[in-house]
Design brief:
CATH superfamily: Aldolase class I
Largest sheet: 8 strands, parallel
Number of helices: 12
CATH architecture: Alpha-Beta Barrel
Strand order of the largest sheet: 7-6-5-4-3-2-1-8
């Protein structure tokens, strides 16, 4: 399984209709679009999927729809996380994991556990989960940073934990994990903007937001980096960096949904408390996409 979550993963958005329902035809289009664009695996019901706004029946239906459209073409990772450890295990038990390769589980948010609390949280989950666990450290959203020492302790003591999606933005911390991780433990960039630097340091890829809109371009970038990278690849990455910055200027997934709207893949609807990007940013994104023909 571990080889199946290397390279370019895409954190799928959840499309909505104008009246607020999940737009399943658009979700199917999106799955086809990113697969045809060359991504290596799919991540469903993560932060980018606006999962906190989905009801449990919707979560079941979204996962079922993605599985059906994917039809086994690519590996599949499902997000199951929360700030109540026992409830996370209940949610895992309630999730149909047939066809799912791994579970992406974010660090507990809002209640700000200590480093020991983070270790015990993941130990408890890992001992009970029927699929491998990918840790997800994103302190900008959760309010707590899982330090390198804690990640490494989990990696050494919890055999069912196989990887981390690191979105701390701290390249020194990420490099420390890479250099000291036990054999077989994978480090995945959680930031599009740090994908190539993390891979250059020994990371195995990225779980990308931008790949929703530009799967072909990102697949080429990550594929070249997996092969050893080059100055030309770095330059191609720098060319799209301003557009990546636009995707996050007014929050995620508002930016990437705007880009997908320009691409004609989904419509530009989000669920409150999230709202679409401003008209000004939408036009900037549109102009960048059209002028550069980002694929």
């Amino acid at each position: 399984m571990i080889e199946r979550i290397k390279g370019l993963g895409v954190a799928l958005v959840t499309p909505f209709t104008a009246t607020g329902e999940v737009d399943y035809p658009a979700l199917e289009r999106l799955v086809d679009y990113v697969i045809e664009g060359g991504v290596d695996y799919l991540v469903v019901m993560g932060t980018t999927g606006e999962t906190p706004t989905l009801t449990m029946p919707e979560r079941v239906a979204v996962l079922r729809a993605v599985k059906a459209r994917n039809a086994g073409r690519l590996p599949l990772v499902v997000g199951v996380g929360g700030n109540d450890t026992a409830r996370v295990v209940e949610l895992i038990d309630q999730t149909n994991l047939d066809g799912v390769d791994a579970i992406l589980s974010v660090t507990p948010f809002y209640n700000k556990p200590s480093q020991r609390g983070l270790f015990e949280h993941y130990k408890y989950i890992a001992e009970r989960a029927p699929r491998p666990i990918i840790l997800y450290n994103v302190p900008g959203r959760t309010g707590v940073n899982m330090e390198a020492e804690t990640t490494l302790r989990i990696a050494r003591e919890c055999p069912n934990v196989v990887a981390i999606k690191e979105a701390s933005g701290n390249l020194e911390q990420i490099t420390k994990i890479i250099e000291n991780a036990p054999d077989g433990f994978l480090v995945i960039s959680g930031d599009d903007s740090l994908a190539l630097p993390v891979m250059a340091a020994g990371g195995v890829g990225v779980i990308s937001v931008a790949a929703n809109a530009f799967p072909n371009y990102f697949s080429s970038l990550i594929g070249e980096q997996k092969a050893g990278g080059s100055q030309e690849n770095d330059e191609r990455f720098e060319q799209i960096r301003p557009t990546i910055k636009m995707l996050f200027a007014e929050g995620n997934p508002a930016g990437v949904k705007a880009a997908l709207t320009v691409k004609g893949v989904v419509e530009n609807y989000l669920r409150l408390p999230l709202v679409p990007v401003s008209d000004e940013l939408f036009e900037e994104l549109k102009n960048s996409i059209v002028e550069n023909d980002w694929k």
